[in-house]
Specification:
single chain, alpha/beta, Rossmann fold, 6-stranded mixed β-sheet, 31% helix, Histidine phosphatase family protein, His_Pase_superF_clade-1, His_PPase_superfam
């Protein structure tokens, strides 16, 4: 079985005149990003590969979460994650090498939330706030579609 961790970037600032892609994390977002890494570590999860949107807030989230968790994990910036629909994210995930056991995808709503709901056939509407992640178990990367994953955990910064 493979493990897919889907992470929405932590809380970002709204700065007038700043391009959306360049929005930085807030102080709270930086703290939450560090907690994400600590929580994943406590869960015994460490990514073999990280696929990350190139926006500043997703890069900062990934770097802060990985600092104590998996600082040597390869981090690939994938422009197609920014503003992606779930089917585009599935296509990207499907190109992952078979030797990757645990994959971390760092992206944006609504795409990441819709992705986890689609893969797990979840109909809950708890939302997926900044800094939230879901851990899904899959039978492989290629050809993933609706119902092909089982959600084994879900976390938000308010959970601790």
């Amino acid at each position: 079985m493979n493990t897919l961790i889907v992470l929405r970037h932590a809380k970002a600032a709204h700065v007038p005149g700043l391009a959306d892609r360049e929005r930085p994390l807030t102080d709270r977002g930086e703290r939450d990003a560090g907690r994400i890494g600590q929580t994943l570590k406590r869960m015994g999860l460490s990514p073999d590969l990280v696929l990350c949107s190139p926006s500043l807030r997703t890069r900062q989230t990934a770097e802060l979460a990985l600092a104590d968790l998996a600082p040597a994990a390869p981090l690939h910036l994938e422009s197609e994650i920014y503003e992606a629909y779930p089917d585009e994210l599935l296509e990207l995930i499907g190109r992952t090498d078979d030797d990757v056991s645990t994959l971390l995808l760092v992206g944006h709503n609504p795409g990441v939330h819709e992705l986890i709901m689609n893969l797990s056939l979840s109909r809950d509407d708890e939302g997926f706030p900044p800094g939230a992640f879901a851990v899904l178990e899959t039978g492989g990367w290629a050809g993933l579609g609706p119902g092909d994953a089982r959600m084994i955990s879900r976390w938000t910064p308010k959970d601790d």
